[in-house]
Amino acid sequence: xxxxxxxxxxxxxxxxxxxxxxxxxxxxxxxxxxxxxxxxxxxxxxxxxxxxxxxxxxxxxxxxxxxxxxxxxxxxxxxxxxxxxxxxxxxxxxxxxxxxxxxxxxxxxxxxxxxxxxxxxxxxxxxxxxxxxxxxxxxxxxxxxxxxxxxxxxxxxxxxxxxxxxxxxxxx
Amino acid sequence: xxxxxxxxxxxxxxxxxxxxxxxxxxxxxxxxxxxxxxxxxxxxxxxxxxxxxxxxxxxxxxxxxxxxxxxxxxxxxxxxxxxxxxxxxxxxxxxxxxxxxxxxxxxxxxxxxxxxxxxxxxxxxxxxxxxxx
Lengths: 172, 133
Description:
heterodimer, A: mainly alpha, 434 Repressor (Amino-terminal Domain), two-stranded antiparallel sheet, 8 helices, B: alpha+beta, 10 strands
């Protein structure tokens, strides 16, 4: 399939004007398809993605179309935040671009959100699988409030009113 | 998905392929090529709503190809393996909100039935360079 795609695209890259048209059309298609694929990977509706990205459902529907071309970096940043991913923008050689344009299958476009990113959580997950859960001391932010009328001190933290300043916690 | 295209055998013995022999200006040719390049790589769940959109007629879809002229070829999923292949059936354009030809979807519905009965009416789309005008 990869060879089919390259055979289809390569002849059009010879002419400078035409290859820029290809680059633009393939870029737009790539962005739109990855947004749709990432949304489907997470099992989200267009409405849910719209809520998370501060957009309307109709805007998400438009963006998930091969002919959408009005992309803004600011919009892509909002979508990246909604997916809990980083957005990258690169200038590429046409050879690299061609390789990427022939790699638009679902597996090539799906990305884990930060919580499932093995670069950050792989070691912890491996430790959880082999060792008993570690015990750690966790500091909880504390706010001391003095109520002048009743001269009563209250503490607020992760456990709500009256929580201790530190507590023993288990991961896992 | 694997794209197929309708073939028409003419009286003089020549064969016309729906997509490959579609004479287009460069911009439309680029857009059509990109659409096909992406179609080759997506599954049915990705394709619907992204590249192909449902028509009223069951099984019939239109593809979005945006250029100076808005190409809207009609196609069907399958017809034999609807999750793995599509067959392009009718060349069509959209101008001023109108489809040309106006009965493109109806024609596609009829051709879909013909192709389902006779698989020789179509060919797998081969990535030969599409021809410009």
